Amino acid sequence: MSRPRRAAGRIAVTGTAAAVAIGGVAASAPEASSARDGGAIDAPTPPACDEVRTRSSRTAHFIDGDGTLFFTVRNRRFGEELWVSDGTSGSTGMVKDIGPGRADGFDAAGYDRSPMAAAGGLVLFAGDDGVRGRQLWASDGTEAGTALVKEIGSSAPPYYDEGPASLTGMGGAVYFSAEDEAHGHELWRSDGTEAGTALVKDLRPTEYDGYPRNLTAVGDRLFFTARDGVHGEELWVSDGTEAGTALAKDLRPGVSSSEVRGLTGVGGRAFFLFDDGVHGEELWTSDGTAAGTVLAKDIRPGRRYAEVRELTGLGNMLFFTADDGVHGRELWTSDGTEAGTVIVKESLPGRPSAFPDYLTAAGGHLFFTRWNRAHGYSLWKTDGTRVGTVRVKSFPRGPAATYPWDLVGVGGSLYFRVDDGVHGDELWRSDGTEAGTVLVRDIRRGSRAGYPRDLAAVGDRLYFTANDGIHGDELWTSDGTGAGTMMVDDIDAHVIFRVLRRTEPNTRKGTLRVGVRVGAAGTIEMTPVGRSLLRPATVTPGGPGESSLLLRPTREGRRTLRRTGRLVVTAEFTYSPCGGVGASRTRSYTLRLR
Asked: What is the model's pTM?
């Protein structure tokens, strides 16, 4: 595993655009700069380093790779690349710089909600090394164990290869859609080796694509939608072999497409939403056969939709929300039969619905949120029975209070974020009891929010992104206790440094004051770039906040100003903080003399 260095090395681009320099950790002020018109400027030693505010990291795509967190980080030096972490700073780092330079090595292609999947001790993902285009890669979490699996299709023009998409793990392999010159866009599978990566079936053996989508693992079978050129886009099922990949049912006979949505696997069956033209869009289920692909229940009789949403499995039961036209939007459950598809509990009998939301399985219960006038924003749980559907905890109402949201189950507990009106938007945990529903940690102390998000279960730990007000958005982990909830690493240790657009010109003297914002005490040096007729300047901010530097012309610059009334200059601002990593910015300005 390689890790980006926090070492000196400057990338300078002059002109009107910003130039980013990645500097080393500055423990003291830099050496004095020579003035262009004689003399030297002695840079004072920066004040003591009491607080260092660093930039946010851009993390995404959290996934459990056999107990190790795989995720991506996008930064200015390497682009977006694959990273790993075991929850400690020393073992958190970039796996491999796949994309050359600042190009993205990890390629989610903007539209793919599933660009990465785990199976067989490996994580497979869509990568781009700048040579072969978007292709299938695999990683065991080490640099040596991260490599191209197989080149599928050609990235050479005029052929356009979309690369692997909709990666889904099932039974020790990863299934995905990919395009090659011979078959078009079809269903593939891979065990992470070149020999074990092959086309499953050419679903539409013509020059047109089968275009498999909505890949969903249901036990040891894969359900998805695809086109074969005869039936339109319909529901398919596969056991991973060519012979075992077939149309499940032509739901809308003929060339018309069924427009299946919400595929969800529960208890060996697939549940989905479909409008057959008679019942409106309702809940359907399938065992993979035509005879076993049926309407579960016409929840809202007639052509009006029941608006089924949030299909979520708990054991062998499906939970969802729906509106039957009588009770409003409520919580429902289904075992796949009409008799077993029922409303769980009407929250407000005879009144409009309370809109249950954020359905999440954890610790043998289904948790969800709802609102009513009596209790405001509340966390609820259910075991699927009326008596077992109870309110866990209510949260205060008010302009700052919010629903509990971003719910995720980890090791028998539920984690979520909520603003209780006191601590801001922070991380909470629940064991399903009111007394056991508690604030885990006030990450950003006081009423300001830590904004935990992207909550993900990896083994028995929780990983997420949060902001403590000092380090920006960074990777955090939690074992459910305050002491065990901590920032994993300050991945982007560059101290906040911005050259502000706000300037204060003095046209009587031909000077310009430029504002800067920094995240720590340190030294900011302004030096002229190229033949710019500027005097160097230095300022030593005593801590986080705004400062300013005065841009003054040299003697020759003043003569130019008197003659023409304007002087175009380019200045480099170099920030050396008392801790963390510094940077430089280059800007161009016009000095004017009235």
From this structure: 0.85
- SS3 (DSSP) at 558: helix
How many CA atoms does the CB half-sphere of 122 hold within 13 Å? 23
Residue 413 CA to residue 428 CA, distance in Å, equals 10
CA dist 140 and 285 (Å) reads: 36
Residue 497 in contact with residue 518, Cβ under 8 Å? yes
Nearest CA-CA partner of 429 in 449, 457, 410 = 410
Structure tokens at 459: 């083994």
Task: Tell me the pLDDT tens digit for each residue of 378-426.
Answer: 999 999 999 999 999 998 876 656 789 999 999 999 999 999 888 889 9
CA torsion sign for 348, 354, 356, 362 is negative
- Nearest CA to 471 among 456, 454, 448, 450? 450
Residue 44 pLDDT greater than 50, yes or no = no
C-alpha pair distances (Å), 379 with each of 55, 353, 360, 367, 395: 34, 16, 11, 7, 8
CB contact set of 152 (below 8 Å; sequence gap of 6+): 135, 136, 161, 163, 164, 178, 179, 180, 188, 197
**Separation CA 445–CA 447 (nearest Å):** 7
Determine the pLDDT at residue 208.
83
* Strand pairing category for 437-441 and 425-430: antiparallel
| Residues 167, 154: Cα–Cα separation, whole Å | 20
Lowest-pLDDT choice from 4-13, 234-243, 274-283, 469-478: 4-13
Closest CA to 583 of 510, 522, 537: 522
Q: Which amino acid is residue 463, in one-letter code?
A: Y
φ, ψ for residue 520, nearest 5 deg? -165, 165
Q: Which two tokens stand for residue 133?
A: 């285009």
Distance CA 238, CA 187 (A): 10
Q: 453-490: string of b/e by CB count within 10 Å (b at 16+)?
A: bbbbbbeebbbbbbbbebbbbbbbbbbbeeeebbbbbb
Q: What is the pLDDT of residue 409?
A: 97
Which comes out higher in pLDDT, residue 445 or 224?
224
CA atoms of 190 and 136, how far apart (whole Å): 9
Where b means 16+ CB within 10 Å and e means fewer, 131-166 reads ebbbbbbbbbbeeeebbebbbbbebeeeeebbbbbb
More confident residue, 477 or 33: 477
Residue 326 neighbours by CB under 8 Å, 6+ apart: none
For residue 32, pLDDT beyond 60: no
Q: What is the pLDDT of residues 170-188, one digit of tens each?
A: 999 999 999 988 888 999 9
- DSSP-derived letter for residue 526 is E
| Residue 399: cis peptide before it, omega within 30 degrees of 0 | no
Q: How far apart are CA 15 and CA 101, in angstroms?
A: 22
Mean pLDDT of the region 8-25: 32
